[in-house]
Automatic annotation (TrEMBL):
Alphabetical list of InterPro entries matching this protein: OMP_efflux, TolC-like
Name of the protein: Type I secretion outer membrane protein, TolC
Species per Swiss-Prot/TrEMBL record: Sandaracinus amylolyticus
Protein keywords: Cell outer membrane, Coiled coil, Membrane, Transmembrane, Transmembrane beta strand, Transport
Coiled coil: 367-394
PANTHER family membership: OUTER MEMBRANE PROTEIN TOLC
Record-level Gene Ontology MF annotations: efflux transmembrane transporter activity; porin activity
Pfam families, per database record: OEP
SUPFAM superfamilies from the UniProt entry: Outer membrane efflux proteins (OEP)
Localization per Swiss-Prot or TrEMBL: Cell outer membrane
Length: 480
């Protein structure tokens, strides 16, 4: 972006182009930054949900050691035991409602215990070694089964990402529209000030000339007062125009964002007048409007919520199975592994578990609530489409009227310039009055301001159309 410093009204000013204003706003606007951060947050939620179904490794170890007293026929005897267990488990949940656990555990145990009450002397048992491999699988057949519920949160996260993208696009388009509108309003305020300053200069020149001619006796004192009144009125007008310029500078600084220690000033170049648009704009607005796209994402979000409404209260039927391989050795650490390797000891288990609420009212209420939310979102989208359609038609009419006003104002300015020049010449020849001259000059000033106003109204209407059709998104770079 190019910033050129130049003194304007004895004040340091940043001279900006329309493109520079858009770049500054995109870099500094807190509103757009918040929308970008919200989209980034939504994208992280998607990544989190995509990583939900991953393998989880668990490891554990335990040591159990000590003496245990017991009663015998001859008194109290002490038994000693020690056991060390090392285990590891790999588990994963799947999106279709299945969970799997693979566990491997090894143990070493040793005991000195009293086996017969009549023989109170402890007998050593062990050391013994064991190794177990267990695979457990559970598949939900109803409530949590299949991808309808398993991927619900991922689908919802993706919808939220799309909604955040739509919100970001709308915020960016509104920012470009507001920044350019504020820029051209500031341009108009400065051009209007220049028109008023020129009118004040003419009034001052005429007042000085009338004073000089009064001293020569060719102009009556009352005529001099007329020019003095016009000069005083133009001084007031210039002061008001300078105040309006400062207001527009502050408004543009607000839209851009950030702290600014200098005034903002637009380039002298007039805006490039937009080409006339046809009625196809209405259909394009319905298809590409950032506002409608955001509402469409709200409908999708409500539909996704409806898809899984009441799922937590549906009947649950889980099918579980477990397969185990076991090995054990006495004073031989390698024997358990050999037994597992040749499937010497195998166990298996299959089970079914069913659960259902006896009252279905809560589930039906949740489903009805979700269905109503979808209908509300659809009605809001329908109302927004009608509004966008009407606004697009209204903006087309506003642009057409502004274009016609501009063409008529051009002709009015040309005529007013000739009339003001002719009345001034007639007054200098004594064939006109100060009142007529001042009226001609006032008409010229008003015509110039109307032309400027029509120009900015045309640009503003086209900016609003471009926002409605999503065209302004091409003017700002959006990071992901």
């Amino acid at each position: 972006m190019l910033l050129v410093a130049a003194p304007v009204h004895a004040q340091t000013s940043d001279v900006l182009s329309p493109g520079g204003v858009v770049s500054l706003a995109a870099d500094q606007s807190p509103t757009l930054r918040a929308a970008l951060l919200e989209r980034r947050r939504a994208s992280q939620l998607v990544l989190s949900e995509e990583a939900r179904y991953t393998f989880v490794l668990g490891m554990d170890a335990s040591l159990d050691i000590g003496d245990t007293p017991s009663l015998t026929q001859v008194g109290v005897a002490q038994s000693y035991h020690e056991q060390v267990v090392l285990g590891a488990q790999l588990s994963r949940a799947f999106e279709w409602g299945m969970s799997m656990q693979l566990r491997v555990a090894g143990a070493r145990q040793f005991r000195r215990a009293i086996l017969l009450a009549t023989i109170p002397t402890p007998i050593a048992i062990g050391p013994g070694y064991s190794f177990d491999v267990t695979l457990g699988v559970t598949q939900s057949l109803l409530r949590n089964g299949w991808e309808r519920n398993g991927l619900a949160q991922l689908r919802q996260a993706r919808v939220e990402l799309d909604a955040a993208t739509a919100s970001r696009n709308r915020a960016a388009s509104e920012l470009v529209r507001d920044a350019l509108s504020a820029y051209w309003e500031l341009w108009y305020a400065r051009q209007a000030l220049e028109v008023d300053v020129e009118a004040r200069r003419v009034a001052a020149t005429q007042h000085a000339d009338a004073n000089a001619r009064r001293e020569l006796g060719s102009v009556a004192p009352a005529d001099v007062l007329s020019f003095a009144r016009q000069l005083a009125a133009m001084e007031e007008t210039v002061a008001a125009a300078e105040g309006e310029l400062r207001v527009r500078q502050l408004e543009l600084a607000r839209v851009i964002g950030g702290e600014r220690s200098t005034a903002l000033s637009p380039h002298d170049e007039a805006p490039t007048l937009p080409a006339p648009r046809d009625a196809d704009v209405i259909a394009i607005a319905i298809e590409r409007s950032p506002e409608l796209f955001e509402l469409q994402m709200q409908v999708r979000s409500a539909e996704e919520a409806e898809r899984t409404a009441g799922a937590a209260l549906e009947p649950r039927l889980d099918l579980s199975g477990e397969l185990g391989l076991h090995g054990m050795g006495y004073d031989d650490a390698g024997e358990p592994f050999a037994q597992v390797g040749r499937f010497a000891a195998v166990t298996g288990m299959v089970s079914l578990e069913f659960e259902m609420p006896l009252d279905d009212a809560q589930r039906r209420a949740q489903m009805e609530r979700a269905s109503l939310a979808v209908e509300v979102a659809e009605r809001r989208l329908e109302a927004a489409r009608d509004r966008v359609r009407a606004e697009a038609a209204t903006l087309l009419d506003r642009a057409s009227v502004a274009r016609r006003r501009l063409a008529l104002a051009d002709e009015t300015v040309r005529i007013a310039e000739e009339l003001a020049r002719a009345e001034q010449e007639r007054f200098e020849l004594g064939a006109s009055t100060p009142t007529v001259v001042l009226e001609a000059q006032s008409e010229l000033r008003n015509a110039q301001l109307r032309r400027l106003r029509a120009m900015i109204d045309l640009v503003s209407a086209d900016l609003q159309i471009a926002h409605t059709t999503g065209e302004l998104l091409d003017d700002v770079a959006l990071d992901d």
